[in-house]
């Protein structure tokens, strides 16, 4: 007959079990960014080892939620109402795990651990899920609805990552607000670039029209130019604050901004009519050169 464990031994064993579970959860989350995003995946490799896992955990949660509304759930046979139920359940479980520190869902558990370590709260998570629900509604966006959607779907992700970057860093309130503004603008730029690149595919396969007054399969050169100018303005604002970021993330964020800047330039050079026929990409060799350039710039 085995002897009962003393309280201290039992506590140590339980702690070891939770640590093992956390490591397994993170390994699962890390796979998601490698499978789903070449650009973010490459740029994230420039993050310091201390913060890279946290960013991978954030990316995994938002990607899995995004897949509920972007085709994977529908391909599995779920109706729109069932996709909404999945989002509701995922949001509720994530909020619960952020409070308790545990989830039986590995991706949610990984995110919740990062959220608890870096003070990511419901005020950032709830708008994200609100934007994901909006993707289930095919109604065109007004300008105000689009701003609200981009805040929840992209800007809050930038703010989540910023909380990771600033962990154990002292910044005063004015500096924090400046960095937060840059993080929001970078997230908004990334989202608008993806909207423009996938303008026809989003409409054809998902029935979405993000840009008010723009017909996805009849976008004009003038409309494209206005959207590109808006994206470049966001990127300029973000690039202005990148030098103020901590060393552990600066090169990675500079590389990510440069990758999307290159994609914007290629979209700008593509005739508007062609955006409905081809998905503009940055070749892998060019991506690697951009990453190499980010490495050699001081800080």
UniProtKB/TrEMBL annotation:
GO MF term list: geranylgeranyl diphosphate synthase activity
Keywords: Transferase
GO biological process, one term: isoprenoid biosynthetic process
Pathway involvement of the protein, from the record: Carotenoid biosynthesis; phytoene biosynthesis
A Pfam family assignment: SQS_PSY
UniProt name for this protein: Phytoene/squalene synthetase
Originating organism: Microterricola gilva
